[in-house]
Amino acid sequence: MSASKHAATVPSQRLTVVTGVRGFRLIVRPGRGETYGLTIEETYGEVGSILATAVVNLTPQQTGRVIDALFAAMRRSGHQPSVLTFTRKAPIRLSEPDGVRLALILMATQPIAKHERVRVVVAGINAMSTEETYYWYSKCIGIDASRARKALRTLLSDD
Question: Cα separation of 85 and 28, whole Å?
Answer without folding.
Answer: 8
